[in-house]
Amino acid sequence: MSLDIFLTNNLTNKKEKFIPKDKNNVRMYVCGPTVYDDPHIGNARPLIVFDILFKILKKEYPNVTYVRNITDVDDKIIKSSRENNISILDLTKKITESFKEDCIYLNCEKPNHEPKATEHISEMKEMISELIKKGFAYENNMHVYFEVKKFKDYGQLSNKKLDELVAGSRIEVSDNKKNPEDFVLWKPSEADEPSWDSPWGKGRPGWHLECSAMSKKYLGKEFDIHGGGVDLLFPHHENEIAQSRCANDSKVFANYWLHNAFITMSNEKMAKSQGNILKIKDFRNIKSGQVLRLALMSAHYRQPLDWNDKLLEDSENTINKWYNIYLNIEKKPKISDEILKPLLDDLNTPGFITNLHKLYEKASKGSDEDKRIFISACHFVGLLNESKEDWLKFKKSKVSISESEILFKINQRNKARINKNYDEADKIRNDLLDKGVLIEDKDGKTVWKFK
């Protein structure tokens, strides 16, 4: 018997039981990266959130289609290309590869489809033509705009009226528009910008259009779940709904809308404009991807997550502890419904981590079967995915001191303690800790391990 999954749907502002349109074909679309710069930790959060949702859906349903797009034509890309004196093609290729390496590093499963915007221009032009034909869009001076007032449900996702939305947002000012709130579907390109031929002149699509065109191609006119960061809720997702429903004559676009909250540093949103960016790739050689993955799971996806050194340290200590009872398992035991229960309740990852701690405590005192259940539960959310040998090997590679030096330092510390020179003993302990080595005094002996 399948288990009930509950999700907070931003379209209704309620937690609802998930009921797919077709239980034999569950469909999910998530907004992916704009490949103008290396992804940062804030970009990693939706990767983890929707990867876990993908795993839950696959457990409960026989066929799940997960689509995550790559935006490879955009104003930010053009600006970055100019600033870094690199061609747009080389830039987008480089950042796309970096993004894919980040996904592997964070142990995220590949979506079923990862379409690029530039490979779907014909689908976008087709949708624009349909919107013009049906009277929802208009052309002016080689631009095409969606006329927002023609869509009566505009603002339903953000739960605001049109005048409130326009007043509280940055909107493009243009003499080409009929109304300030109208958004661009097609615009002319400058000489050094990417461009495609169209009935409205040589140009390129507006950003909002690509997700509507690609979701339709891979998931159909109506599908189950649409996800992304909370910063995309308005105007991006609001505009997607408007243009998709009008072009497709649909009463709905996606039935469930999920948005993850921001990652903050010192309670400020992590963003390039804030100057507080931490790139995922900069962690690859100093921290295991598992540590970042656990850290990103530590808060509920709808709540802000403050990123700091203590969060990483606590996450690394937890993974270290869990590896103490690691076993290689080929056949994974079934995870009970009770263990999974928090994840089924609106992706409550902190609740699931609490269950993992309970399973660890039981396994550390119990049988190999208890250990297998614990490890299987970790595997379900993408943790303990490396062997213990690989985990220790990675940790050892980060230690900036040889084993003989460690033993020499311990001997020096023991002598300092005998001579009651406790300040010197503490200094040696802290020096070793800085180099990635933790020492402990047990039963009259000093033992060490990699931090």
Describe this protein's structure.
A hairpin with a 2-residue loop joins strand 5 and strand 6. The chain is elongated. The chain folds into 3 domains: 259 residues, HUPs (Rossmann fold, 3-Layer(aba) Sandwich); 85 residues, Four Helix Bundle (Hemerythrin (Met), subunit A) (Up-down Bundle); 52 residues, no CATH class. 38% of the residues are buried. The chain starts with 5 loop residues before the first strand and ends with a strand. The protein has 15 helices and 15 strands. Strands 4-3-9-10 form a 4-stranded parallel sheet, sandwiched between helices. The protein has 451 residues and is of the alpha/beta class.
Helix percent band: 40-55%
**CATH top level assignment of the largest domain:** Alpha Beta
Strand content: 15-25%
Structural class: alpha/beta
How do the helices and strands follow one another from N- to C-terminus? EEEHEHHHEEHEEHEHEEEHEHHHHHHHEE
Largest sheet: 4 strands, parallel
Count of discrete alpha- or pi-helical segments spanning 4 or more residues:
15
Number of domains: 3
Radius of gyration: 26 Å
Strand runs, count: 15
CATH architecture of the largest domain: 3-Layer(aba) Sandwich
**Stretches with pLDDT under 50, minimum 5 residues:** none
Mean pLDDT: 93
CATH fold-level assignment of the largest domain: Rossmann fold
| Oligomeric state of the chains present here | single chain
- Quick one: CATH superfamily of the largest domain? HUPs
Outline type: elongated
Distance between the amino and carboxyl termini = 44 Å
- Strand order in space, largest sheet: 4-3-9-10
